[in-house]
């Protein structure tokens, strides 16, 4: 296939122990190297070399920039919720550029603001691809092991995380990749180098799957809308090409997906919750004040749970199980056998009456379904009736007020009020000597002069 190659690190069809390449393909821990088109060049994806105990582990190389990403997940699922338990950690190690920290402490410090932003770039496109009902806690760790100063690691980290997830047991829907799009001399460049970006009018990070765009972030220098849309199209085409190659790699050395771990609430539970809470839920959502509305919804949730528990629908051990029906006691045969007579051939079998036992639901599933139904009712009220919970129509704004100079001894302060939401902002001014010096991968001085707390 053009632009795609799989290399076995042994470099021979038969290994020393007599196993062939086809035999090695059956083992997910076997080392493989893949070259994938990445803009105007190729990236090298390696798996099975290091991190073999992880659910998925890859090293992605662009030039001399290397990203190492692992994916691990808990053996046991956590409590059901509407939020996928995903944690992302990204770190740029000083050793990647042959440097040490300029401060007194030479160990790697806490996560920097820039690294937190890259963590969010990784999280955003991956989270929508995770299946509903998968509750195993998942952790993505990404390190910059080598940095050449030319090839940016942020877009590479998104692609590395997408490949690691695709190779793991996590049953995500599609492969994810990320690219940077630049506009240099009216030409769209995919993953430009840092030197090329100095002349670019556009700096856009785009991530998605082969069929949809999931995340766009960046800035531009007064770029017209039509050019920005063309940049999105160029980025999506590059992402689509990468995702197709990743899917080919998954067919070769990807692990079996944990489809059996997806646990969705039974459809019957939605019917029971809606029957109990339907009318009262509509009334609670029409309460204008936030705190009384919140209490009413909470009390209604407690009521729904209590009724389902009283009727025997809620399991005590908080697990979704299907209980076998209780067998009624078999009635005694009232037929009288005369002395001396032996009934050797006839067997009298009477039908046994079975008492139906309802399907048991977990308490977590009841709360999850109640929250989902509440969202459906609220959305329906806004769309059909044109009213939000506080009585405003979709276009109506809350009353806004502000009070400057709220704190007399602060350099600057303001109290901002919008409806029932308030924010107190305080500013402190200082000179350049008070700025914080930051370490980074490139050998340039960087000072942080603005803090938002």
TrEMBL record:
Q: Which UniProt keywords apply?
A: Exonuclease, Hydrolase, Nuclease, Nucleotidyltransferase, RNA-binding, rRNA processing, Transferase, tRNA processing
Q: Which residues form the Exoribonuclease phosphorolytic domain?
A: 41-171, 176-237, 396-435
A matching Pfam family:
RNase_PH_C
Which molecular function GO terms apply here? Answer: 3'-5'-RNA exonuclease activity; polyribonucleotide nucleotidyltransferase activity; RNA binding
EC number from the UniProt entry: 2.7.7.8
What's a single GO CC term here? mitochondrion
Q: Which GO terms describe its biological process?
A: mitochondrial mRNA catabolic process; mitochondrial RNA 3'-end processing; rRNA processing; tRNA processing
The keyword Nuclease appears for this protein: yes
Superkingdom as given in the UniProt entry: Eukaryota
For this chain, the family text in UniProt reads: Belongs to the polyribonucleotide nucleotidyltransferase family.
Among PANTHER family, the record links this protein to:
POLYRIBONUCLEOTIDE NUCLEOTIDYLTRANSFERASE, POLYRIBONUCLEOTIDE NUCLEOTIDYLTRANSFERASE 1, MITOCHONDRIAL
Protein name as catalogued:
polyribonucleotide nucleotidyltransferase
Species in which this protein is naturally found:
Genlisea aurea
Q: What is the lineage of its organism?
A: Eukaryota, Viridiplantae, Streptophyta, Embryophyta, Tracheophyta
